[in-house]
Amino acid sequence: MTDKKTAQEIMLEHVKQKGIKTAFDRTASMAPCPIGSAGSCCKICNMGPCRLNPKKPDEGTGICGATASTISARNFARMVAAGAASHCDHGRAVAHTFLLTARGEVSGYQIKDVKKLHSLAAVYGIETSNRTKEQIAEALALAIIEEFGAHDSKLNMPKRAPQPRQELWNKLNVWPRSIDREVVDLMSRTVMGTDQDDRNIYMASARCALANGWGGSMIATELQDILFGTPVPTRGKVNLGVIKKDEVNIIVHGHEPLLSEMIVIASKDKALVELAKSKGAKGITIAGVCCTANELLMRHGIPVAGNFSQQELVLATGAVEAMVVDVQCLMQALTEMAACYHTKIITTSPKAKITGAIHMEFDEHSALATAKEIVKTAIENYPRRGETCIPQEDTELVCGFSHETINYMLGGSFRGSYRPLNDNIMNGRILGVVGVVGCEVPSLNSNQAHYDLITELIANNILVVQSGCSALGSARNGLLLPETAIKLAGKGLAEVCQTVGIPPVLHAGACVDNSRILVAAAAMVQEGGLGKDISDLPVAGACPTWMSEKAIAIGMYFVASGVFTVFGPRLQTMGSKKFEKLLCEDSEQIFKGRWGVSDNPKAMAQMIIDHINNKREKLGINKAKERVLYDMAMRRDLKIE
Ligand code: MSK
Hints:
The chain has 26 helices and 16 strands. The protein is α/β, with parallel strands linked by helices. The chain has three domains: 55-228, Up-down Bundle (Substrate Binding Domain Of Dnak, Chain:A, Domain 2), CATH 1.20.1270.30; 240-384, 3-Layer(aba) Sandwich (Rossmann fold), CATH 3.40.50.2030; 404-619, Rossmann fold (3-Layer(aba) Sandwich). The strands form four sheets. It has a six-stranded parallel beta sheet. Strands 13-12-11-14-15-16 form a six-stranded parallel beta sheet, with helices on both faces. It has a two-stranded antiparallel sheet with strand order 1-2. The structure holds Broken Fe4S4 cluster (MSK). The site of Broken Fe4S4 cluster (MSK) has 14 residues, from α12 and α19.
């Protein structure tokens, strides 16, 4: 990072001069509730809310007698349930569109990745011979939709995990039965007077989180790949400079790419481009924010204007004709910011309306028509544009590292394989692999926290796989550009990355796509040489800063899959040392994976490095094998047996 003012800093000064407040100002003036942030406020009934003193962990109880540990566990569980619900509902929406596409009831969508369709059909035991791709897709869609509401079944996707992990889930009774059931179960058991045992609540949280990671999220990712294409390495650009001064700018924001994919198509419609020109614009630019941005970036190289923390700043450029939002991570303050300019905020989901926004509802049956209407609305708004302030800063990046791409890049097109990765971990050139996820929050050190952690990891020869807003922050910092990042990587990692042609920080997609990391971990185990379960691998998870409940659900499915996962700067559980011990210590005995917490990125990196070294020692690969160049004398000394 340089001393030059960043685009974000320029925009923050700009809005300050105009007297407009943003989330950065509100963060500075908002002192977090110390009781809530310790997870010690119980508001699940009306006798309280009962507030326990976080300075005296585990002392006192609520009116009903609930201990700090039970209160913390319930609050934690409800975050897991909400986070899982949102990602899984995303999966449901995609499955619904997938079914309509298979039946030919919608236009604009198609079955693009037939190879992936077949491999997913195999997971679900769907017959593929003598069937068209549409027939296979319909059978697959019906089987998947069934998994959301089944009463007493078992999800299919966890069968992709290594055998010992499956056995452990069975033994612990945490194999998810169905997606909706696990969310309902967790909400129901945490109502006043039901489950009062912290460990029992924690186990149910794990089952619900697994229904997300190895269920709803994985369904969303896989079906989106089949519909829109599995990502391959793609170049793109990130930062506020991607907004064009002389074009109609449409920002897509949220998570579900079902409509935004159609907006990309609509923006290329000749009649609409001509209409834009007739209004004095040179063309139409689509740019993204948050994970809708990640989805379009990965598949089409659509530029990214910003991540979660910058959504208001994107509007403050004054150059956005319309911001089209779908679901999740939308700040309510968007409409207030938009009102300072000509910008129209357009909501599109029946479950995500914002007071003051225009609502143009998405329906798969008329998706392209709605998309065209939205683009037209933006174009007609262009002449109303006033003064603009667009920082001229954008950074190039390479993204698109799906599990299939990593497999292909490492092993080649004829036989994709994780063998080179496993071999390089075994010979010590790569120490291990870490999935770095999370949200950048509107504070000035959030981006720095992600940067400090990642640069420390790659300097120590650890390959990083990233997703969500964390990945977009790294892109802004130039870490997704192979040329830049390789300079910061340790010698062994840099050597491997240069040979294979990958950056040391791999962008794997949106926050829903963390399921790709699970599939990659399972593939590493299957490749052999690094143990029999995910928990044997020299891998870890990290989330330097987080905002959404989804992050807690993700952390929980990483841990329940056997991954040491460190969160920062805090978990909302610190009001109970007992519950904290369950998460950060006892979890290891239960799942062979546990939580960690640190508010210091360097310390977080050290925890991870120690963990990875520990795993390497257990695997007997803790000594880096130096390459020895033999001279003639040494060759003569070689004994031939
Ligand atoms: S959008 S959940 S701020 S990663 Fe997925 Fe970004 Fe976090 Fe939302």
